[in-house]
Amino acid sequence: MNFKFLMLPVLALAIAGTSMAQTKGAIDSKTLSEIRNSFNADASTQAIQNAITNSKSIRDIALNRNKVGATDHFFKYRVAVKGITNQKSSGRCWMFTSMNTIRPNVIKDLNLSSFDFSHNYNYFWDIFEKSNLFLENIIATADKDMDDREVVRYLSSPIDDGGVWNSFFNVAKKYGVVPAEVMPETTISNNTGQLNRIVKEKLRGEAYKIRQLAIKKGHAKKVEAAKVSALKDVYRILALSLGQPPVDFTWRYKDTDGKVSEAKKYTPQEFMALVAPEFAKDEMVMIMNDPTREYYKVYEIKNYRNVAEGINWTYLNLPNDEIKAFAMASIKNNQAMYASCDVGKQHNREAGVMDMNTYDYASLFGVEFDMDKKARILTRQSGSSHAMTLIGVDVDENEKPIKWEFENSWGTTSGNNGYLTFTDEWFSEYMFRVVINKKYLNEKAIKAFESKPIQLPVWDYMF
């Protein structure tokens, strides 16, 4: 046995240990001793440690008893809505929410007991159009290095389920909408993870080949042909998984009086114009509370869209008080709104309530958590994670908001029978975006919205 070779790893570790101890910023023995001694393992601390280490959930132990039952689910002003939708295991909240803002008007105008759109239909076109946009972005950046920040951003996520209101606007504007029964959900549309992975792999492979062609001069026709060929494959994958979307369809309905309508033939675009005429007039504005940037300015995120010729994610940045006043006006006029927030923060799922300090981690651990909204955004601790339909507000005797209500898309077993109540304080800290009709804005906001947008990069932290 060669003992010299056995000694080498030991010697290397000793040298490495000496080097680590001398490294600036490394935790030395004195500092480590000070930190260890700061943990005072008295009886109270031992009891907390016992509770946490033997619990299945830190969250359950941190539940603030003073908050339990403190918020009811009654609202002075509430949009007339019917039925809860369920996006299941998909990231289509933005699509469900956008459709849920239109759905109440369809139910009312056609005198229906219930109605829903086909999310599967628009999901098909959303992924298909995102695939095209991805390939166009790859072609446009073919002269940049593979590790260029913009190229990396595109390749990191060629397509996904995610989106914001403009995503629905773009795809519905181009392809229209259809009733749920015309193109029903499939097992795959209800659980989209595997399909997304397959499409991503296909797109990345095609993108690599298209980049090689696009770099060369005089190959524009070959590049376009390669892109179309790739899109044919994507279309095939989607059609086999989701079904082929209809070019036109025949539809009739039964109203609450039992009357069956005449069967009529529609294109999806014609049906969109029938059930959502206001949507077609481009009257909606996305307003947002982003304390990291100047208020009364319009911001646009480069290439945040799903349709190549569509609009990017564009928003008017406003203080919370302005957003709340406009949202109240919309609710009082029975018009639901697309809204998005950081739904995971201080959310008591069993009670269907979101309130500040619902979970008191500071008291449980004896440490402070004191970031404001601006700091949470800039450090990536907080950001919009879920879209829901804003439908209700409760007020005090001075008509000041106390709490608000979401219609969610997680089914009736989630929250308060599918709805979520959140306090006005929670609104200020964790609400981000609301899409609202221009008629509910004041002159100052409308004038600000008409200004030229400040463009933000594709890797912006609000992306």
Automatic annotation (TrEMBL):
Gene Ontology MF: a single term: cysteine-type aminopeptidase activity
State the organism of origin.
Answer: Ancylomarina euxinus
Q: Where are the transmembrane segments?
A: none
Keywords, alphabetical:
Aminopeptidase, Hydrolase, Protease, Signal, Thiol protease
CDD domains attached to this UniProt entry: Peptidase_C1B
Q: What is this protein called?
A: Aminopeptidase
Q: Which family does it belong to?
A: Belongs to the peptidase C1 family.
Q: Which GO terms describe its biological process?
A: homocysteine catabolic process; proteolysis; response to toxic substance
GO cellular component terms listed in the entry, alphabetical order? cytoplasm
Signal peptide residues are 1-21
Q: Which domain of life is it from?
A: Bacteria
The residues responsible for catalysis, as annotated, are: 93, 386, 408
**InterPro entries per the UniProt record, alphabetical:** Papain-like_cys_pep_sf, Pept_cys_AS, Peptidase_C1B
